[in-house]
UniProtKB/TrEMBL annotation:
<protein>
    <recommendedName>
        <fullName>Transport permease protein</fullName>
    </recommendedName>
</protein>
<dbReference type="GO" id="GO:0046677">
    <property type="term" value="P:response to antibiotic"/>
</dbReference>
<feature type="transmembrane region" description="Helical">
    <location>
        <begin position="124"/>
        <end position="145"/>
    </location>
</feature>
<feature type="transmembrane region" description="Helical">
    <location>
        <begin position="40"/>
        <end position="61"/>
    </location>
</feature>
<keyword id="KW-1003">Cell membrane</keyword>
<dbReference type="GO" id="GO:0043190">
    <property type="term" value="C:ATP-binding cassette (ABC) transporter complex"/>
</dbReference>
<feature type="transmembrane region" description="Helical">
    <location>
        <begin position="243"/>
        <end position="262"/>
    </location>
</feature>
<feature type="domain" description="ABC transmembrane type-2">
    <location>
        <begin position="41"/>
        <end position="269"/>
    </location>
</feature>
<feature type="transmembrane region" description="Helical">
    <location>
        <begin position="73"/>
        <end position="98"/>
    </location>
</feature>
<dbReference type="InterPro" id="IPR013525">
    <property type="entry name" value="ABC2_TM"/>
</dbReference>
<dbReference type="Pfam" id="PF01061">
    <property type="entry name" value="ABC2_membrane"/>
</dbReference>
<feature type="transmembrane region" description="Helical">
    <location>
        <begin position="151"/>
        <end position="179"/>
    </location>
</feature>
<keyword id="KW-1133">Transmembrane helix</keyword>
<keyword id="KW-0472">Membrane</keyword>
<comment type="similarity">
    <text>Belongs to the ABC-2 integral membrane protein family.</text>
</comment>
<keyword id="KW-0812">Transmembrane</keyword>
<dbReference type="GO" id="GO:0140359">
    <property type="term" value="F:ABC-type transporter activity"/>
</dbReference>
Amino acid sequence: MTAATATSPAVTDEQRSRSTFVRDTLTVFRRAMRISLRNPVWAVMGLLQPVLYLSLFGPLLEPLAPALGASNAYQLFVPGLLVQLGMFGALFVGFGLIGEWRDGVIEAERVSPAPRSALVVGRVLRDVIVVAVQGVVLVSVAFLFGLEAPFWGIVLGIVTAALLAAAFASASYAVALTLKSEDALAPLMNGVALPLLLLSGILLPITAASAPAWLNTLSNLNPIKHVVSGIRAQFDGDIGSSVALWGSALTIVLAAVGLWFGTCTFKREDG
């Protein structure tokens, strides 16, 4: 009886801490989502780019699909566009955070008792939902062009892209809060995004048969390439294949590292 009495306060404190985290995360999320809904231009522009790729570049892949090892060109192309959406739909969200820092919002949050992880997760949750909705719209449009893919493969592909968005959004917030300057953030994000994008094979697969050895080696070192390959396997229906599982596992790791990086940066601001 004594032991049970001694441990009950600890359990109560843990439950209270968990409740506080959830409440503060939802508070930050609702505020961030309201901002996005009041100004949806960013979300619309983020979706416009992959849709333009789909409509203007996709038809060029149709005659090349058999040579690339795909029965349907859009099974090959749409997964790459989802990854592009996850990257560019989240990589530049840090610009909004710099504006919040300049307006004193970050300072007000810093002196609040809210867990620093909640300040990051709440914002990232907004970005994940926006990318997931954009992914649904993108896939729906792709069906009009002739996409053929299993339902659960599509669902897992969109979830994977959303988790990738969580990784890039967290990193973007962390870097933005460190630099506190749009002039410094823009070239840095572009400098990181362009090599990752070109070496990921989102437009055309990069393999030993289709690329020079040095380019294929560099591409294999790029984690985004394996995410793209994983989503392509999911769209092919190979959900349980090693390629699909490796791509999903790597995406989860990237998301976890990104959230850790973002949380540590917010905590460092307290100092």
